[in-house]
Amino acid sequence: MDVKYKKDNEHSFFSVVNQRVNDYFVSNKLSKKTNAFGIFKAVFFCSVYIALYCGVIFANGNTTLLLICFPFIGFVQICLVLNMGHEGVHSSFSENKTINHLFGYTFDLLGSSGYLWKMRHVYSHHPCPMVPDSDVDIQQTGMLTFMPMESPPNAFKYQKVYAPILYCFYTLNAILKRDWTDFFSYKIGSKTVKHSKAEAISFVVSKIIYINYILVLPLIFSGCSWQMVLLGFFFMHVVASISAAVALFPAHLYEESIFPEPDENGEINTTWAEHQMSVTMDFGTRLPFAAFFFGGINYHAVHHLFPTVAHVHFPEIRKILVATAAEFEIPYNHRPSLNKAVVSHWRLLRKNGVAQMNEIF
Q1: pLDDT in tens, 272-310
Q2: What are phi and psi of 58, to 5 degrees?
Q3: Which of 22, 95, 258, 310 could form a disulfide with 34 if both were Cys (CB 3.0 to 4.6 A apart)?
């Protein structure tokens, strides 16, 4: 069932904030796509990635070098997908559709699928974030619960302890399980999809290329033992997984998170923009390095309202958003500290891991 929202009018919150943001770009003669700083970041992260990969391939038996480069590769992979891949799937990096499309393939560098990630993120998550059965990103796994439950399994009361361990396998799970499940289920969230033959071939080929370039070639050319290469590969994914979890999870899954459910007609009793504001959080905004490495994903309320705008503009747009939200008395979820946002996510796990009538400890 498609989720439906209340209609906006010309005097509504989103109409006003959208007009003010448009006026900002016009008055400053700016493009909504990336600028020189965004291009510099793309070149910088690509260059660092290539240098680190060369360090692995040409380690020449230097195990220390190999085990240093692999974990940094994991971190830079997340930087690439958030600064380039994420912008590519939203067509926010460039006016050139080909460039945006090519940037989507940075997900495949991580071993995931840019094609499936776009379906999950753009066609399921963004239209109805935090809506049960519609937002694929909050689907329950059987091992964790993000949503409150009347009678959660007894083991869930320990999820506050074991969830961080599970998060270390986030990217490996995406590569080895989630992508394949999504591809063969023919359903993303509440949307039924049909993959073309070309996409099926591209999906399989990209997985083969990934395994060969990130694992087979280092086994052949690094001069290090296969045990050390596998250990480096594992460390790479642990670092990538933790980086992704820190960058992505606090944006929606924090202590005060709500999970609005539509009525029997699929309707939610707020406008689309009001819904986005109620289920997203900006975080880590006092730390410029967070936006630099995470591609502005921490300005998440801004991103959800303006998904086709490049992240380099988010700090200025946020000022407009905060002021307008205050005028309309619309709550703005914000934790300027990155570490407090991460702690808030942990508190959500602690709170929802037990029955709601029980004392939370």
Answers
A1: 999 999 999 999 999 899 999 999 999 999 999 999 999
A2: -105, 30
A3: 310
pLDDT, tens digit (0-9, with 9 covering 90-100), for 94-137: 999 999 999 999 999 889 999 999 988 988 899 999 998 888 88
State the pLDDT at residue 309. Answer: 97
* One-letter-per-residue 3-state SS of the chain: CCCEEECCCCCCHHHHHHHHHHHHHHHCCCCCCCCHHHHHHHHHHHHHHHHHHHHHHCCCCCHHHHHHHHHHHHHHHHHHHHHHHHHHHCCCCCCCHHHHHHHCCHHHHCCCCHHHHHHHHHHHHCCCCCCCCCCHHHCCCCCCCCCCCCCCCHHHHHHHHHHHHHHCCHHHHHHHHHHHHHHHHCEECCEECCCCHHHHHHHHHHHHHHHHHHHHHHHHHCCCCHHHHHHHHHHHHHHHHHHHHHHHHHHCCCCCCCCCCCCCCCEEEEEHHHHHHHHCCEECCCCHHHHHHHCCCCCHHHHHHCCCCCHHHHHHHHHHHHHHHHHCCCCCCEECCHHHHHHHHHHHHHHHCCCCCCCCC
Mean pLDDT of the chain: 93
Quick count: other Cβ atoms within 10 Å of Cβ 49?
Answer: 19
What are the boundaries of each domain within the chain? 4-352
pTM for this prediction: 0.93
